[in-house]
Amino acid sequence: MFKRNRGMGGIALLLGSFCCSLAAGLPGLALLTLTGNVQAEEAAPRNTVRPEIGKPVQAALDLLKLKKPKDALARLREADAVKDKTPYETFLIEQVRGQSAAAAGDSSIAAHAFEATAASAFVQDKEKQQFLAAAAGQYYLSKEYAKAADLSAQYFKSGGGDKSIRTLHIQALYLGNSFAQAAKELLADIQADEQAGKTPTENLLQLLANATLKQQNTSGYANAMEKLVAHYPKRDYWQAVIHGTVSRSGFPDRLALDLDRLKLETGAMRGADDYVVAAQLSLQSGFPAEAKRFLDAGYAAGLLGTGAEAERHKRLKALVAKNFATDIKSLGQEDAQAAAAKDGTALFNTGYNYVLHGQAEKGLGMMESGLDKGGLKRIEDARLQLGYAYHLAGHRQKAIQALKKIHGSEGAAALARLWIIRLGQAG
Would the pTM count as exceeding 0.70? Predict the structure, then answer.
């Protein structure tokens, strides 16, 4: 096969922007209220609050209600100064401190206070989940991602099920450089969505792709990108997944034209040179009708016939037109010779040329006969080309069936998977 020596460009990171809504306060938990002579009305003595602590705590609560969280924190420092605080008194102070600091935008203080409150023996199970969630959120805001991941994991172990905390947990893992664990959690969520018949969010798929890329996990990245492009077939994603496929070690140069066919179909051509090289490869392969197809697309995109290379494009266009005219005149002259050949290569290629010239049924029959006759050097490559020919002829299901027969670890199987994704979207 013919080789081409050119770079494929860099793979752009596709990290999406997760939207984790992290409230300043503690959602779902009302502000504490101290009553009477600033003693908690608890039967057990261990739950009493001394006035020297209760008064500043109550004052802090009142200030918090008035949306003066910094003043509330100042009053709490008065309670901190009291010696020999009981565990219950410490629990009350930390609970109010967490809410005040969060409202004041001091996420580090709020995170530690909420974590201490969640660990207290005085907090009830349901409230513990809320404090763990609040602590995780505040640690995230203070960019202490390992702590955010740890606290959010504790939240789920305690029975919590808030989806926003799940998102926070995964993102904290990623931002804390725990890429393998983040990818594991992401893949579990994505597979759960797919099994339930739901479309995974674009952000989840983007983050999975980047988590695997950060690990230099080539197969994991390819799988993530295939999922991403299957659900969100954007041009940038197609360019990235195709580039990732061709960049894998061992991808054969002989499939360069097959790759260009997929790029043209998915809008993944990057510039004028892509169209020019594809047209040249088609001419070299003996398919001027296909070369014309690439050039016409390049001109239609406004990328050919302009700029410093305009004259070169014009010469190539003239050459393709000349070969195309000759090919039309000679169409059919070698049919008998192709049919009489010992192997099916010539018959297969002649059939493909008929498909390119719009005689699909005749051409597909010849390609099928050539494949059945055998002797083709690379059967998987031939099946890939047959699948593409079915697609050109408008036989989508036959194309998919042909492509599903392609096996192995070489490039033909990788391109076949991408074609199946593309043709599935067309349905």
Answer: yes
